[in-house]
Amino acid sequence: MTAPLLDGPRLAPQSGGAAKQLIVFLHGYGSDGNDLIGIGDQWGALLPEAAFVSPHAPEACAMAPVGRQWFHLTLRDPSEYWRGVVAARSALDAFLDAELTRLGLTDKDMVLVGFSQGSMMAMHTGVRRKTPPAGIVAYSGLLAGPEHLQADLTGKPPVFLAHGTHDEVVPFALMGAAESALKAADVPVISHAAQGMGHGIDGAGLAMGVAHCQQVLKGA
């Protein structure tokens, strides 16, 4: 079965020249690409040679008629997360391949930045790409199928995790579980606990996220 073609809003590099880097935002359940692309306006000053893109997830969201989903959520259990990321990966991989080709870039010039369900996709896909991206930023998410991680790894892109301590949607403890699994697989990882934050991204998390992008893209 052919993967659905994804598309979404884009921002050109603030330098005005050709893109030398690519930041891909992957939105959460019930949202769409417009939700995160505005971060590119903020980050562009610090990453002036980066293009930004935020694809709409492939499926209409069952719980939010105007939103999108990477995969359906009903039981919210580990097996459902795993089946979901596996099924959605082909569409995301195809989009990333096409976007990199369009810009004349490689995976080493790219960072995947996800929020919530988008973080699940960023972590799952990023460590399984034929060539891994330069890095991954995962906000308020979880690592699906940690038991599969070491067997599936194709690379070890550095990961930055950020999570609100009072997240009412994806429990804060799941950041610690992701961090432990990544470290056990020798994937470089750093984390930020957003004190008192719910299911969202705080200012410190945004600042640390763009700093992570700058760091992993050095020399790209």
**What structural class should be given to the helix and strand makeup?**
alpha/beta
What is the β-strand count? 9
Indicate the proportion of strand residues: 15-25%
Average predicted confidence as pLDDT: 95
Shape: globular
Helix content: 25-40%
Distance between the termini: 34 Å
For the sheet with most strands, the description reads:
7 strands, mixed
> Strand order of the main beta sheet, please?
1-3-2-6-7-8-9
In the predicted model, the low-confidence regions spanning at least 5 consecutive residues are none
Write down the Rg.
16 Å
Pattern of helices and strands: EEHEEEHEHEHEHEH
Number of helical segments with 4 or more residues: 6
Structural topology:
Elements: E1 10-11, E2 21-26, H1 37-43, E3 50-53, E4 59-61, E5 64-69, H2 78-103, E6 110-115, H3 117-126, E7 135-139, H4 149-152, E8 159-164, H5 173-184, E9 189-194, H6 203-217
Parallel strand pairs: 2-3, 2-6, 6-7, 7-8, 8-9
Antiparallel strand pairs: 1-3, 4-5
Helix pairs in contact: 2-3
Question: What's this, in brief?
Answer:
Helix 2 crosses helix 3.
Describe what this molecule looks like in 3D.
The chain has 220 residues and is α/β, with parallel strands linked by helices. The protein is built from six helices and nine strands. Strands 1-3-2-6-7-8-9 form a seven-stranded mixed β-sheet, with helices on both faces. Strands 4-5 form a two-stranded antiparallel sheet. Helix 2 crosses helix 3. The protein is globular and about 45 Å long. The mean pLDDT is 95.
